[in-house]
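Throughout this review, each integer encodes one residue's backbone shape. One record appears below.

===
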Amino acid sequence: MISVVVPVCNEKESLEAFYDELITVVPELDEKYEILFIDDGSTDTSLEILKAFEQKNHHVRVFSFRRNLGKSEALTFGFAQAKGEYIVTLDADLQDKPSEIHKLLAKAKEGIEVVCGWRQKQKRSGPMIFISKIFNGILQSLFGLNIHDYNCGLKVYTKDAAKSLRLYGGLHRFIPILASQQGFVIDEVAVVHEQRKFGKSKYGFSKLWKDLPDLFSMFFLAKYSKRPLHFFGTVGLIFIVIGLLILAYLTVLHFMGESIFRRPLLIFGVLFEVAGLQIFFTGFLADLMINIAHSPKLLNEENIHFPLKYSSDKGEK
């Protein structure tokens, strides 16, 4: 069985054309299928259009959020509701073509657990293509996952891979990294990318500033979520060393008879020391909390339930 998960937010212009194309493609992939539309708090008539699809096709299921929660939450909810062995995701704007699903599905059936679409020839504005390439290049260098297009909406997952993801905020942009960290096999397939024909893009130059904090969060979660002291401790020690060098320099000047109390450098030295200690102990406390949370509980007779044993020949306890 195949499940197609489609997050929707104010896509009334494209929904009819998208549905008509999708419904001609999916039944040819597998006779057992379902299409899940997740309405992410649309304020136009998208939900009414989706309900009409649901009424005329029993393979369609529609879920609606009361308000806009974001694409990550919509995908996570869709994954939880999906029943198929393979789960397909794509956007409803028709830039990613439903007719390309079969390429990714064939790759998934070879044993790849997350197959990403690769928009080799993106039909977007030049600046957005440039930003996308920079973003993907940074991810490749930081995480070592050789994927050209991390944020293509067209992907195919195995059921286990999709349901293991817990997405929130902007983490849908890092799905290949999250899946790879859990040990799933990742690959990509080149797909056709069309020019937007309906509505307008929800992403502009502001996407760059929104992606940067998410990128930092992703980097920290990937590298230091289990060992925060390695990150905070390193940064804290750097600050402490800088502060010590400044204060050592000022101490030498003081013994040489020069006044140091009106020097701005003294303030900087003290600030580096205080900031360094605070950052270091932040990591230390975080490390303690993680170790306490993961430490095995003491085994004792009060929290162990011993199974009853029966005699094999007499049937007695």
